[in-house]
Amino acid sequence: MVHKLTSVILIGLLLQACSGNSSSTRTIGVEEESFGISGRVGTATWGSRISATPINIEGGPSLIENDSGNLVYDGAASQSSQTGTYELTSEAEDLSGTFIFIANADNGDVFYRCERVQGCDSLAYGSYVPLPDDLDVRAGVGELLDGMTVNVNWITDIASSMARTVYIDAVTNELSADDRTDINQAVLDDIETAKPGVYNQYTMELANLHVSELFGITDVISSAVVAPSQITQIETVSGDALVEGVYYGALIAALPFLAESDNTDFVTKLGEITDVVIDHRGQLLEKNESANVVTKFTIFSAASTILRDNINYFNGIGARVPAGAVTALERLDGVVASMRNDVKTSVDIDVPSRLASWRTAIEDSKFFITDLTAAVKNFWGYDDSKPSFVDPVHGRRVDSYYLAHETALNGVADLAFGPTGALQQILEGAEALARCEFGNGDCSTEGFPIETDSDDPSGLPSDRVLIDGNLRLVMRPIETSDADAGLYNVFDFEIESADNPEDGVEAIPSEIKNALVLGNGKKLYWYTEAISDGSITTRPYVRVFYEDSYASPPAGSFLDDSDPSHVAPTQIAIVWPLVRFEGNIDGAQAGDNGEHEFNALVEANLVGVKDPLDDASQTRYNPVTFVVRARSTLEPDEENRTELNVQLRTTNSSSYYPTSKWPATHEFFLGRPDAPTEITDLVESLYRDQTVLSDGRVIEYFDEELRGRDFISRIKLYPYDSSTNTTRSESCNVSWVDVDMDGDDERVEQSCDTVIELAGEVTLDELLERNFENNVLSRYSVPGNGIYEIDLSTSAIVSGTEYQGLREGEEYGPFSGTFYDDIELGIDRLTAVAESYLKDPEQNALIPVIFELALERQVEDEFALSASYGFGSEETYENISNQLGVVAGGDAQGFYVELSVSEEQISDGEGGLKTIEVERGYWLISRSNVSMGGTDQSVLAQIATRTEYTQGNDETACGFNDRDKLSAAAPTDATSNDGCEAVAYLTVRGALVGTIREERDNVFVARFIDGTWMIIGD
Amino acid sequence: MIKPRVVAILSAVLASTTSAAAEQNIKHTGNMSFSLSAEASSEPVPIDQMIEGWEQDADPGEYAYADMSLVASASYQNFTLNAERRWFYSLKFSPDTTAVYLDAEFGIETQQDRDLNLVAKVFQARGIGGSYRFEGENWSVSPAFMVYKLIHYQFGSFVGRSFADEGSNFSASLSYYFDEYRFPSFDTLPEYEDPQGTASQDWFGYSASVSGNWSPTEELDLALQVKDLWNLLDMGNSGHRSICAEVGEVTDPVCSSGGAASGDDNPKVLETSIKSTVIANAVYKPLDVYVQYYWHDVYRNLSIEKRYPFGNAQLGLVGTSKRQLGAALYWQGLSASYIVDDLNIKQVRDARIGLSYQYLW
């Protein structure tokens, strides 16, 4: 299970110990409700939006939609002033949190102050130079503190990029060609590849340390920044801080200078330097002969030049240049002078010592994953020697309890729905009423005495039948298209008990309206109850719909036969309001057996389907919607109880031809097994022409005549309307009519609907060609059968694979269709909740087991799924119950799962876009009695997943959805998403600690930030 | 587990170092020589399988060893300058290793629990160094020093236990130092990931050797060479992976993995050394008989060669305590030898091959 689960890749894990030494709650005083952060963007970047953005569960900055509907970075936001400074007020709850500070141009134009005495981009020294619109400069802070200074500039951005980079197989080793010959090419392909990873507290802090050391700055985040043009103005810092501030400011000012020197822009140059640092694993070449290589030398030389020019300038105008500025220049020059050709910097951070405080969290998460893997594999505790999600004793008890329920319900179901059961009798009674035709037909059906219901407002005679002496079925016409003629197309069959039910009914409460005695003497009682459409129904009914209108339902409607002369309803609605009956539960564990009261409500809406290619085919029914609610209670104390609530809405219910007349669960997600492989002359003709309206407008149209369809389908295209920049399109039904009575049929429009305004100017040729390219012209859905493809290249429409078009006034076809794909009965929306409360004899408390499932299809092949499961003692609920959304207690085990499938468009790397499938999963897991550090602890985990892939037919399965379709081949290059990109990000106590990937087929590896890893599963 | 097939240091040609016996009595001011020499021995499987991957008919054994070098040297008077390319391969393991390996690789069930210990030292290096010959009337001593730049390396220790049950059942703990891309992943382990990218990428070795000659009589020459008498291989902050794995039914694991396998990819400092190699030679000139004793750790080989005139060359016939037979040819400055234990190259377990040329001036 975990194998499969993790195969769609887990994205986040929040692990939180809930007892023992688990307290990680921060206590914040009332006076600390908000706190301030300040800093500087660049040396003086003016007008940038600056936000302190929290890290989301995928390890990236969180985005939110602003008032204008645009996505912007979440978190406290402000705007940088003309001097580059900014101030933010953050919420107290953000204190100690991990944040990424992002400066961008979301608020409009952004400028930097020119620090070069010679001017910048033809603008004068000290003036403001525009920065590109795609500016995005960041700084990562592992732990946000009150009053903190956070610089955001290109140097902190490099640290931020490093913090989000993971190196897998990224060693170059400077392999010679000779060395490479004996290395597997696939390994080589993966070498030297740094991949985008996630932000987390640890990597941010480490990267900040690293880049600080790389540039010789105490702390790139908090060190003061003194712009070269401001060295004579500064009074806030002095001494060493001034020296470092000037040194840092000169380095920050170097990037625009370097960009200008290379005739490029700030963002491009920053990207170039970042790439170099990432490629060199956090190092820079000290110096290189080539002018095209970014080196530490070039950066420091530029900084030194800018600072020297400023010092000379101020000296020239007689301003007092602080000694610290000269010292800073000497420091920069010292670095420049010490650079060696073709030698890389060797910045090294003592990682293990930085990790000390993370050990416990990492070990906890490792243990949790191990425990969870074992428990999920043995979810229901069938192997009681291994860890399980459900306590084995409780699992077996629930098993036997449900089995006993199933036995009891099967007995009732046979009586109600079996071959001689109540439903069959109702159908036979309905048939008797139909034949009687309200007294106008044959009313002598044996065993089904016909009566007249005196309460019938329409006053129709012979509208009731007495079944088996205790059940009455009343037939009422409901909807009519011609009231005067007394013709109806909808009829109800209401069910009610006989006037004087048998003994025992007296004991039934007064709200009971009806009772049906089953064959074994048991009675079904139904109650006044609101049904799913909100109306109150006092008794059950079956509503039948016909395509045509009749005075009474056509005879044969309710026979389970395949006689094509019998008219079958096109739709059947069944409403059984709350039904109550008694049943004995036997075979469960001691204490759980006994007389139970069952309550059930069933509603179903069925649609009839015929095979359009076979007039003699039987009408069969698919569910459109289905609602069932059931509850059983152990009498008399009503303690043990089980409840089930299922609601279902299907897809393709009107076009899937099922294998049996009545719905069954096995019909779902299957194609029709006996669908023909070829349909002769499926498309009888394709035709295009034009017609001229009375106002002179020329209408182009295209007709498709399909076998088995009553009408020809026509698409009409009106002339382009330049005033609205649209082209109007209509779809119409057309039939052959001999208008002139000359013996020749003509195409005559019968009706038109579905008006679509197409954007821009569209011609019929364009529309048809587009349809051809999207296979709309060659694939046809044949209800009851499947999707069939025709070969257009057998006509002049297509030559080879090239679309040639249709000539006006010429009929093309017929074309035979070859089976292409199934039409399957699917699920549009399904919710199911099953709850059981079983009494714990020792604690005299009820132990709930709750399972909730919701599945919603958004569009074809995209859906959202959520499921939750809880088990635990009702008396020992803890906070985690609320967090999970399902009950969980001291012995609780619970989970909540969400999975959504969607599509996103990303760059294909060649200037275009491509569509990838994205699956996002989210888990909340509660585990109790997990032994950590020698003590049993309850653990609440939060896991989210994200998987990206393109569908294909290669060998790699990816994601939950479409695993059978497999994903496309391995990525064609490092940045492509052709393959399966699925990464899990593990978070411990709010900070990400690692990732999980399916690194090999079915081998799932959790990697932790301290460099350790584990393979999940066996 | 250190998979033999990944060890690619044994290439096509193996050679011996018997040229020490090819003493020249004529005084020259210098010489240039090129030599290829290899000494290889594998107990469990033929050398070919040690390179390509073991097959299921492996024998129990305790070591696999190979030391091959390509040397170019130039001497002037008593100074010699050497440039070397060296391939060194040493696996030492407990006798049960073969059974455990077969269990892990082929699922061949073991009838009893078995313990495994394995130590691997493998490297490829380029070296440069020199020696100086101190000599007397009938003796000489030549200390030599080499500095190596390692190209690839794998150093590791492995402790494991295989359990008698159906299928593969074993527990293993591995500590492995390597230059990254060489790490064997067995198609199941994660690719190596240097977490911070801090593994060193320059690795050096230093080795001091000494050789000496003594001719106690006119008829007898004795020579002794101790290679790597002192040596240090300094990998700095080396790529390193530790692994704990538990596969199948494990009752008494050697470590706790918390799952199928867990590991640590943090680089670790590695300074290590290899065992010295002792090569002793004796020549009894009246009979043209040459005796050599080769000793590296547990590998020992005694060989006897008898040389015969062959035109204006010499032909040597060689037999060794490793049941090897072979021939050697000496002609002017050129010598070649091929000594193996099986005529079928794919079945050779012990091999000594040499090819050298020396030009004197």
Describe this structure in words.
- The complex is a heterodimer of chains A (1018) and B (361).
- In chain A, the strands form 9 sheets. Chain A has a 22-stranded mixed sheet that branches. In chain A, strands 28, 29, 30, 31, 32, 33, 34, 37 and 38 form a 9-stranded antiparallel sheet that branches. A 4-stranded antiparallel sheet of chain A has the order 7-4-9-12.
- Chain A contains 15 helices and 49 strands.
- Chain A folds into 4 domains: 2-18 and 851-1016, no CATH class; 33-164 and 199-347, no CATH class; 403-667, no CATH class; 678-817, no CATH class.
- In chain A, strand 28 (678-692) and strand 29 form a beta hairpin.
- In chain A, helix 6 (239-261) packs across helix 9.
- Chain A has 1018 residues and is an alpha+beta fold.
- Chain B is mainly β and 361 residues long.
- Chain B has one domain (4-285).
- Chain B is built from 2 helices and 19 strands.
- Chain B has helices at 47-52, 97-106, and strands at 30-42, 63-76, 79-93, 114-132, 134-135, 139-162, 170-178, 204-214, 220-238, 240-247, 261-264, 268-272, 277-284, 289-296, 299-310, 313-320, 325-331, 334-340, 350-360.
- In chain B, strands 1-2-3-4-6-8-9-13-14-15-16-17-18-19 form a 14-stranded antiparallel barrel.
- In chain B, a hairpin with a 2-residue loop joins strand 2 and strand 3.
- Mean pLDDT of chain B is 84; it is low at 1-25.
- At the A-B interface, helix 4, helix 11, strand 48 and strand 49 of A face strand 11 of B.
- Strand 49 of chain A pairs antiparallel with strand 11 (261-264) of chain B.
